[in-house]
Design brief:
Elements lengths: L16 H25 L4 H9 L8 E12 L4 E10 L4 E2 L4 E5 L12 E7 L8 E11 L18 E11 L20 E5 L8 H6 L6 E2 L4 E11 L3 H7 L8 E3 L15 E11 L11 E9 L9 E2 L10 E2 L10 E8 L9 E9 L8 E9 L12 E8 L22 E15 L9 H4 L6 H13 L4 H6 L1 H13 L7 H13 L6 H10 L7 H18 L4 H21 L7 H21 L6 H20 L6 H14 L8 H13 L5 H18 L6 H25 L4 H11 L7 H10 L3
Parallel strand pairs: 5-11
Antiparallel strand pairs: 1-5, 1-10, 2-3, 2-4, 2-6, 6-7, 7-8, 8-9, 12-16, 12-20, 13-15, 13-17, 14-16, 17-18, 18-19, 19-20
Helix pairs in contact: 6-9, 8-9, 9-12, 11-12, 11-13, 12-14, 13-15, 14-16, 15-17, 16-18, 17-19, 17-20
Length: 758
Amino acid sequence: IPRNNKGLKADTSNTSIITLFGLHHEMYQAGEDQHNLRISKKTNTVSEIINAALGRKPEINLFQLVVECSMVITTIKEDFHLTFALWNKKTNLAFTEEWSLTFSSLGMARDVLKNKTIFTDLTLEDFEENVYLVCKVYRNGSLLLDKSQNATSKPNDPKYRRPFFVSMARLEDLGFTNFVEQEYTPGREFEIRAPANEQHFSSMPRKMLEGKVGETKQVLEAKQVVLQLRLQNATLDQVLNRNDGELKGVVVSRKLSFPSIFNPGEARNDLFMWLNTGVFLQGSKKAALNVQIVIKVFLDDGKHVPRSIQAAGSPDPQDQFTSSVYYHSNTPLWDEILSLKIDPELLERSHLQFVVYHASTNKKQGTPLSFGWMKLTSEKGAVLPDSDHVIHTYKISSNLKELKGCKYLHGIDKSLKPRKGEEIRVKTKLLSTLKTQSHVLHPLLSWQQTSIIQLKHYLRAFNNEPYSSEQTKRYIKVTMSMLFGMLQSLKHKELHQDLLTALIKVFSNIQEEEQIMMEAYIKNVFNFSKVHGLLLNLSNERLKKELIQCSESLVPLSKSFQWLMQFCVRSYELDSDDTLSLSDFKKALRNDTLELISELLKRNVGKNKQVKEGQMCFIKVLPIVLLTFEKIFSQKELADIVVWLVESIHSSPQNNAPRLNLIRILAEKMAFKAPVAQEAFFPLLLKYLKAHLVPDGGVDECYLAVDILKKLLHFIQVKETSCGGGGEDVKAAIISRTSSSSINNPASSSSSSSSSSS
């Protein structure tokens, strides 16, 4: 709103245009001065800026950046295609998808409902280095601008997408401190530059980030790109819901990577392709080519797949992608990104068809020069690996007869003539939770249509393949659905042992940061209600077998046991038909599973490395297993089980640490708030503390004992604080037992603990 020097609104109806312009200019300059002052005083890191703007630490390490492009001001009367992406200065690469939109020659968005985007799921780690918002602008007009026509293309000229200029800015320089959790920033100008040589257009963002502005020039025809931004510390759903429909239908621009931890129920199926560069034969033409490439998706039977490519200038999927045109270049460098929106069921049958044209200044239709193709999957059906690919081309006639029916796929057309030395270079990247690039996992995903003999072969290949943490994170849902689906299917009995081996392989390699994701899968996604009985029996049989053989397989089984039991219990909870009664389930757990665990803990490991490692793994995961059993057993039953298992551990005067270790973990993981549980557990705890607090005990055991006492006393203090007392009985037990004259006598300690259960 223009205001006069007294701060009052100017009467626009009685104020001259020149005066209004002067007022606007003064206001803009004042805003620039304030902005520069903020920049000079800004804190050192983006995370500090966010903390300062929020007035607190972020509630969650998740941010959504809302960007609105409201206007593009140029002197050229042509349509424009704009692409926006976030770039990391350190890597000098874009780390988000490109957001694309089209503006008319009047500088307004063609679709005002899609002039906003949300760069979603950003984290503080993304902001550790300088983050830039990069905008690449293409004009849609003639090959050459007619300078005599005020930089406007002729109306009858064929229209091509031509490189125009690049605009970019650091988020901090766009008023970062202003738009965290607040209203949009006022519209701000970008730095607008064009390459000194058009062939360097696609590399301009990298050069500008490197500070090589000398290789660029100002664009007199381009005046301004107006943006508004807002950063919110929330999930995507929260941002969409909190803005009262303002962002309904907004375009979401995701990161070009999976987060370290993500919702296992979330589905993503993105296949990206970068059209990088190419080498093209000039032939008989006097000047270099104006290369234009048209890309379409076809099936193996020659049918075109409509609305399957989303790229620059198209907020929605289109029937085809048409590249930009570089004037007189046989080696154009495009660096344009496409997102392939193909039904997962059709991907294995799909391929990309590339047709190369020479764009003319006087013909509406370019001249076809050659064509090539690229299948999107391997011969075995897995998606192409994330890498660079070279596409060789073949001669094509003016009527495009070589393309009919896609006969080139099957080697039927013997008349194809390769254009030696000509090639197109692309790069692909798969970000999918549904399709895989693994030749081992891919055939298993279609297990319902595969024979038992083949499945057995594929499962063994899966079990023998080196473990991939990234594969587990990406495909946790489809992998678990595949393995448990076969386990629950009655016709796959021959595969049960191979399926259990596959589950053990996955579970035993779960990293600490992946545990949250697996727990979320069990709680929110897992839905197999009939596998608990079978899975429990298989787990018991495998443990019994390993106790006999004492092989290397005991260690991964021990590591995976907590997950096997969690899936067993969750499946039992989901079983509304009561396939297995509670009493029978308890009996199976107590008489089989826990009995086998007790037998392992009793073993004198001696020099047997496998049994020793397996025993230590079980001691580590046992509290988690017992916590899982809280859903099945009562507190009293569980406390009795704990006493039994602790008493089972083999120890000697020379090595008491295993038992103390388990007691320490139990004291930390299991509070035993119920009085009946305390009566069973605390006397046991005190008994073994007394037994091990002797002069012969090692230094490590003393530290363990102190750690256990600290946890016990902390529990008493918390209970007294939260419940107004109630720890007196435990304190009395500690005082009476630790002050007893028989503290160095394990036998008398044992007898006294059994006579008192206060």
